[in-house]
Amino acid sequence: MALIPLKLPPGIYRNGTEFEQSNRWRDSSLIRWAEGSLRPVGGWTDFVTSGIAAAPRAMHGWRDLNDNNNIAAGTYNKLYAISSAGTITDITPSGLNAGREDATENTGYGGGYYNVGTYNTPRTPTATWLPATTWSLDNFGEDLVACSTDDGKLYLWDVDGGGIAAVISGAPTNNEGLIVTEERFLFALGAGGNSRKVQWCDKEDTSTWSPAATNEAGDIELQTSGSIKTATRVRGRTLILTDTDAHLATYQGPPYVYGFERIGSACGTDSPKSLVAVDQMAFWMGQKGFFVFDGSISRELNCDVSDYVFRDINTNQISKVYGVHNSRYSEIWWFYPSEDSVENNRYVTFDYKDNFWTFGQLSRTAAMDIGILRYPVWAASDGQLYFHEYGFNHAGATAFVESGPISLGNGDNIMKVTQLIPDEQTQGDVTAKFKTRFYPNGSETEYGSYTMSNPTDVRFSGRQIRMRVETTINDDWRVGVMRIEASPGGKR
Q: What is the C-alpha separation between 184 and 187, in angstroms, rounded?
């Protein structure tokens, strides 16, 4: 008898064929690797259970000068302010142009492609898609500034004055979004209906937008073939993404105020809320890959699950993708709609500290990291807000991880497995299943599930196995390197 360690590296690998995923983990949900062991992600508990009538598409948290914690959340037709106690105030601007809860096919005039098809003949759909409505939210000092992609006006909500958000006087309209720079300028993105234009107010003065010798207001039209989608702060600079490339704005002072340079091509995004800043770096989901700005240039990330994610995603609803930093675990989470869903129901994560990927099932439409509050706050499609990384209650969902094929012996002989030696901190919290095959494309037989004991008696044979560890128990379990006791069983 030989003890064979089932030692697989952390992270999920889901590119190529199943056999190419040999000796790696290939499927998962609600798990992570931290400090050398497999464990569950944190659970969640109620924060706000009613009062938001639709899926939030943006969230922002900040602390005002009275040391009060504030959260803003925007839906396709509403803007809300939420206190740290969960009290909701509707601050929707008067006359806000309501947008779309879902991306929709533009079948109206100008929505299709000219001279495609034959008159009076049925044809396959060729129209473009109008994206779901999202918001840009930021704080200008202690006040909130906001812009809806389908309304285009820049709004300010006075924290002390209360009431509703009001249009910023003199600001451009028909904008794509906004960002407050570290130098306290308010950038209007896609300003005035020009999808390449960035326009900014005078420093620390949102009421002055016309350039003059006595102020630092200004504008520039980026040299790009794309349209501006979003922006974020990255340690003293401002990163701007279009749907084709990436640009960096650096403050220079008068007379030019800002300098702009393109720092990446073929790296754009269709998902305005997928951009996540981490200190001097930023990460985002593109149309067919994941990208990072490393402080110098933008480049594509080597992703072990891109084949799976971009086959799985509903590209018509890609505008709903939402990224968030989970700083406690050095993770970037992206929530996205799978191919059979119109709403975000899956996630993919990147551990940028240890450089591995995971994915799973969880429906969240907007999120914010810890900072002003003790726990991250993530939003569901029904408008409920949850504290995350709170205990280990996953609302009955199964946390699991499953491997690709693991060859037994030398891969030629059949091996008979009789025992499993678990490496589990809280023995009995997780169960194990095994799936065996004699050939890579042969039929698969499942054994288990087995409740862990020391040792655990099992009975199966094959040339290769797949192992699945799973649980619905709400506990902080740990799993290390499992070992199986096996002996040769001849050839087949």
A: 9
Tell me, rounded to whole angstroms, the distance of Cα 221 from its chain centroid.
Answer: 29
How many of the other CB atoms lie within 10 Å of CB of 66?
8
pLDDT in tens, 22-79: 999 999 999 999 998 999 999 999 999 999 999 999 999 999 999 999 999 999 999 9
Each residue of 58-67: pLDDT tens digit?
Answer: 999 999 999 9
Query: Is 55 found in the same domain as 33?
Result: no
Q: Are residues 457 and 335 in the same domain?
A: no
Nearest to 64 by CA among 168, 182, 157: 157
211 and 115 share a domain? yes
CATH of the domain at 369: 2.130.10.10
Q: Is residue 455 reached through a cis peptide bond, with omega within 30 degrees of 0 on the bond before it?
A: yes
User: Does the predicted TM-score (pTM) go above 0.90?
Assistant: yes
Q: Identify the burial level of 396 via C-beta atoms within 10 angstroms of its C-beta, where 0-12 means exposed, 13-18 middle and 19 or more buried.
A: exposed
Residue whose tokens read 């649980």: 471
Structure tokens at 397: 């969902």
Reference 57, options 368, 311, 325, 360; nearest CA is 368
Is residue 452 within 8 A of residue 434, CB to CB? The reply is no
DSSP structure class, residue 205:
B
Distance CA 75, CA 82 (A): 13
349-363 average pLDDT score: 98
Residues 474 and 373 both lie in one domain: no
Q: Which of 338, 360, 388 is the last residue of a domain?
A: 388
d(CA 345, CA 310): 14
Distance CA 54, CA 64 (A): 27
Q: For the chain, how far is it from start to end, CA to CA, in angstroms?
A: 20
The residue among 362, 388, 414 that closes a domain is 388
